[in-house]
Amino acid sequence: MIEQVITARRKSLGGFEVGRVLPFAQRRMVGPFVFFDHMGPVDFPPGLPREVDVRPHPHIGLSTLSYLFRGEMTHRDSLGTLQVIEPGAVNWMTAGRGITHSERFERARREGGHLDGIQAWVALPAEFEECDPAFTHVARRDIPECTDGGARARLIAGEAFGLVSPVPVFSPLFYLHGVLATGARAPLPPAFAERAVYVAEGRVRIDGDAFDAGTMVVIAPGKSPEIIALAPSMLMMLGGENIGTRLIDWNFVSSRPALIAQARDDWRAGRMPLPLDDDQEFIPLPAESPAPPNPMS
Questions:
Q1: Given CB 3.0 to 4.6 Å as the disulfide criterion, which of 50, 120, 167, 194 pairs with 65?
Q2: What pLDDT score was predicted for residue 236?
Q3: Continuous segment of H or E residues that includes residue 117
């Protein structure tokens, strides 16, 4: 039932570490999910330097999905959006033909605080790669939930277990946040070609094997193993239909190399507007990536 096991690789972003899961050398995508970072967990002291912030940078060809377990970030983008990202809310930014944004730790700078959450990228189907950019915020109270004994699941995006998320997705997918008490059991939605479980906290058993935090378990097509919590656990369950191969070059995702080349030229030449009220600095374009394009460095 288990097709692959991926262990998060610790990577420094300058002021804190993330656990990078996707893309992986032997697994570029799970359904349309092309990028998956576990941010933290980390404790920030008051007076956090601005260098720790995620400065303005561009995207094309994807939707970013920011979901926090704990902590807070402030999102600004070139559409003029200003949105505080809080635990349990969903922040879905569709880059389409191009958008820029920043994510800053303004509350932690003032007060100190904890950060723990997931940053995921969802590749857009080819027919939507050049759509208009957009931003959608869905409050925590509006995310549908279901419970069964000691298991609770929140449907962040897509469809699963008879629930439909209000997040405007572009292809068939599901993205669930599960919380399990010790001994609780949870199924994995069966109706998608590619599926995976990421253990964010705790320890679970899947198909007879035990997995600890920081592990993504990719499930074989057509199989529906039960997930059993061996300790209080927190999971992210994700998947969807395969939308085809995607190239990743820095923060750009596309099925067409020409769109990535154009995005690189546009960012280098300053043709992509910076976020409103956050246009005094930005992340410069990195050196040209070797072919084929590599994951974001």
A1: 120
A2: 98
A3: strand 113-123
